[in-house]
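Sequence in, structure out. Go.
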Amino acid sequence: MRGWNLVLNLSSTTGDGPFIVFMASRFSFEPVSVALAAVILALQFHGWISFFILVYYKLSLRPNKKTYYEYTGLWHIYALLCMNAWFWCAVYHTRDVELTEKLYFSSTVAWVGFSLILATLRAFDIRDEAARVMIAAPVIAFVTTHILYLNFYNFDKGLNAKVSGSLTLVQVLIWLVWATATRHPSRWKLWLVVLVGGSLSMLVEVYDFAPLGRYVDAQAIWHAAAIPLGYIWWSFVRDDAEFRTSSLLKKTK
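Output:
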């Protein structure tokens, strides 16, 4: 492979063998993680577009051309933050330098923080704008402060892992409680994604175990699992939009 060197990255915490990373003069990349992150990014984009088409072109709209589904705008923001996080994830695994690492960590915690807001609003069926602001404001302030702290004061990876893990744990619990209490027709999808995805996400955050083989590390395993989970997740979002729209239309008749 012309112009490339093969580097054996020996883990400082385990003795289970080398992890292969390809390096060039200016950047390095983990091929499996990069490829999987790119696939997930494409999948998230497809999920967002399919949701967009559903709520604006397939489901009924209000007289003012807005959707009946009260969480449409929130899911648009979620999709943008999610795709941004996966984009920087792919970049980081392509070029592992301080800047890309900060962008990756920052975009991920922003996505996780907003996911907590969305989980809270949907689970408790909060539709009043003032109430939404009251719930979102403290989370946004906390996440923004954390991102500024990481980027401009102390790039503490351990602290970031704890913050991301805590935010993930809280939203997992919220979704699980709601999935248990609700009679939503697609609650099984929520159970599957939250239990499997949440568990794997927190596992990677707190325990980056030794590579399995020479190419696959903990991040790669999480990325691989995120592909089917991402598909099921957006399927749940579309089902939720249909369910809420149908319920609201029945009330208006």
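Check: Strands lie at 5-10, 18-23, 28-29. DSSP finds seven helices and three strands in the chain.
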